[in-house]
Amino acid sequence: MNSTFSSRLGLLRGSRIMLIWVVLGVIGALTATGLLVTGRSADTGEMRTARTISDSTTPGFAGALPDSANPIGDAAPPVAFAPLAGLSPAGMPVASSRAVQALADHPLFAQHVGLGRVDCKLPAWHDDPETARAFYRSAIACLDASWEPTLRGAGLPFHPPRLLAPTESREVASQCVQRLRNGPTTFYCALDETLVLPYDAVRPLSSGSRRGAQLAVLSTEYGHHVQNLIGVMQAYNEKRATLGKETTAGREQSRRMELQARCFSGMFLGTNFGRADIDEQTWTEASHTVQSGHVNRDPRMQGTEENVWGWWKWGSDKGDTWECNTWYSSPAHVE
Q: pLDDT digit string (tens) for 68-127?
């Protein structure tokens, strides 16, 4: 072969190969760019999802679920016998249950534990004190039936709270009567294990057949009873006293306490959604009461309206004590 032709052919082949590599490089760059853009879009979607869906490996509130999310109803996790405080090695409840004074590491929040499902029969709500008392007695019986198997199954103590529902706040005879110094309000008194629900405090919520509104208030105070029974309230009081009750850190502890009670309230309503008298209207009335801020009073002590609603809805949608671990949650979620 002619050496000059061979040289030219070699150069031509070299040029073609170079051109091919250049084209492949351009295609590769465009492909990489496309993948990068796609990846960014996917990452953005994941970030958006992460703000609304709980990380299944991390207990605690991870952001408010959209209002369109449905309560869980019968999708709630079943009541489980858990290897917690007071259980024998075989996993059966022992005769002597005991409270555990702990917060973030309390054994009830260490795994996924749901509530008992009950067919709650409630009288209609009417605008008078005696009917209110009858309603509260029935609702407390439903809450007892839902919480008792969970706590006893976990080897934790259980007994019903007392009810004090006078017509006027000035009639309250409670060891925590000082809680009324700023006017009529509802509260739980740990000293005598009493749900205090003066009629003049709950009457503003009673227009129409506001059964759900009353359940939202009652189940929140009942949530404090649960905290008291299992030892969380005692641990909280000790920690807040150590930090200083009116310090910034002490008030944060108060918000964690209050927001957990909201989450417990949501758990009860969500777990039993669609069963007997806890129908869609009742659940909706309860949710509107929480969203409107009626259950919230002092944001410094009880949390912002956004977080009050967020934790209540989270409890309703998750139905799980693991998810109600406000003590584990980041400060931003307990503001």
A: 666 766 665 655 544 444 444 444 544 457 899 999 989 898 888 899 999 999 998 888
User: What are the structure tokens assigned to 9, written together?
Assistant: 């052919």
What pTM value is reported for the model?
A: 0.76
d(CA 111, CA 327): 15
Residues in Cβ contact with 138 at an 8 Å cutoff, skipping those fewer than 6 apart: 120, 121, 122, 123
Q: Which residues contact 103 (CB under 8 A, 6 or more apart)?
A: 232, 235, 236, 239, 256, 327
Which tokens is 114 given?
A: 């749901």
Structure tokens at 39: 């990846």
Q: Where are the alpha helices (DSSP H) in the chain?
A: 3-52, 129-153, 199-202, 211-230, 232-243, 248-271, 280-291, 299-302, 305-318
pLDDT digits (tens, 9 = 90+) for 157-172: 999 999 998 888 787 8
Angle at 270 (CA atoms; ends 104, 197), nearest 5 degrees: 80
Q: Positive or negative, the Cα torsion across 9, 11, 14, 18?
A: negative
User: Are the C-beta atoms of 70 and 293 separated by less than 8 Å?
Assistant: no
Q: Are 206 and 127 contacting, i.e. CB atoms less than 8 angstroms apart?
A: yes
Amino acid letter, residue 81? F
